[in-house]
Amino acid sequence: MTNPFENSPAAALIRERVRDLKPKKSQKAIATEAGFVNANVVSILKSGTSKIPLDRVPALARALEVDPAHLMRLAIEQAIGATAAAAVIDCLGAPVTRHELAWIAEIRDASDSTDPRLTARARISLRGIFGK
Amino acid sequence: MSEPIFTVPLSPLPCWEDLTLNEQGWIEFIRVVADGKDPKINLERVRALQAAIRGR
Fold first, then answer.
1. What are the φ and ψ backbone dihedral angles of A48, each rounded to 5 degrees?
2. Whole-structure pTM value
3. Distance to chain A for B56, nearest Cα, Å
């Protein structure tokens, strides 16, 4: 069996979250919480054998304890490809995650709401934050 | 996850278009350097952000 979506960011996120949640939540529990009757579905999504069903994204996001907007963005990319996803997001509006809103809140706070530009210095700092 | 949770008050959720162009630039860059993940903000990151913005 091939895994056409194995390298997709969506499959990688599911693998990461299932691994991180392992001490407190089994894969079967995640599947049940996400509304999948068959617990193997989570394995299938982890391996990238199948795409994430878009209608299950909200429940799956809750089960995986990730932001639904983030998972939806990745799931749309996985479903229709990055170019088409960009077009969909352009028409419908891009989702902003809770964590991204937290970044914005801090940027506004640190700048006294002066709407700072992303300067070269800021780029270097952000790269440093993420070890790049 | 091992990252500490840093909770900030969240007002009504804005959408992408509610952000300024500069803010969109920040978030796009964060998405890129975070490899498309959805990184939490924490105290260390807040300090680095403040230093970058305030020039300290």
1. 80, 20
2. 0.69
3. 11
